[in-house]
Design brief:
The structure holds 2 protein chains of 2 kinds. By secondary structure, chain A is mostly beta strands. Chain A has no helices and 12 strands. The radius of gyration of chain A is 13 Å and the shape is globular. By secondary structure, chain B is mostly beta strands. Classes of the chains: A mainly beta, B mainly beta.
């Protein structure tokens, strides 16, 4: 079956430093779609960005990610962390009828 | 604007009792999903639906039933609630697994 791995449960950064949240996936289908969802405290999870195109950079709200099918990865990056980026980030993969979410990475940005 | 609502927002239930969580969406999306969110496990899919009258098992369906009586409504039913079902439950809707999912505000369920 499909699986998504986010190895880091918690990432703590100082404001202004770069962000990189790791995501790798396994799927039996070749037409995988990968997503990053962000969940701010007391809000609903919402889509941050998505991709299905190999080696194409996708950007939204200062974050970017590139799907690399050769390494089954879809890491989330940002050049400079802000305090307001503190949230729970989920990587998810969809290749059939449903999405499979990773366990999530809590990003904590401190001043 | 996409709109997914859930009721109740908070629920305390007793072990062995029946619990029904309701979800309504005004997006006219075909697909609807029920997830539970637990620290260390992330979002896990319980049941989903392709449209009125359809329900499918997700990754952790044991102990849960689902009902989709209409395009707009999707319920999650715990016939015999257990403390292990204490969690935050999210409903979501979307056109397909390849499209954005819109989440409701969540229901915090505590089973004593």
């Amino acid at each position: 079956g499909d699986s998504v791995t986010q190895k880091e449960g918690l990432v703590t950064l100082t404001e202004g430093l770069p962000v990189m949240l790791n995501c790798t996936y396994q799927t039996i289908y070749s037409n995988a779609f990968l997503f990053w969802y962000v969940h701010y405290l007391n809000e609903s999870p919402r889509l941050l960005l998505k991709s299905s195109t190999d080696n194409k950079r996708t950007e939204h709200q200062g974050f970017h990610a590139t799907l690399h099918k050769s390494s089954s990865s879809f890491h989330l990056q940002k050049s400079s962390a802000q305090l307001s980026d503190s949230a729970l980030y989920y990587c998810a993969g969809g290749s059939n009828a449903k999405l499979t979410f990773g366990k999530g990475t809590k990003l904590s940005v401190k001043s | 604007e996409a709109a997914v609502t859930q009721s109740p927002r908070n629920k305390v239930a007793v072990t062995g009792g029946k619990v029904t969580l309701s979800c309504n969406q005004t997006n006219n999306h075909n697909n609807m999903y029920w997830y539970r969110q637990d620290t260390g496990h992330g979002l896990r899919l319980i049941h989903y639906s392709y449209g009125a009258g359809s329900t499918e098992k997700g990754d952790i369906p044991d102990g849960y039933k689902a009902s989709r009586p209409s395009q707009e409504n999707f319920s999650l039913i715990l016939e015999l609630a257990t403390p292990s079902q204490t969690s935050v439950y999210f409903c979501a809707s979307g056109w397909s697994a390849y499209a954005e999912q819109f989440f409701g505000p969540g229901t915090r369920l505590t089973v004593l």
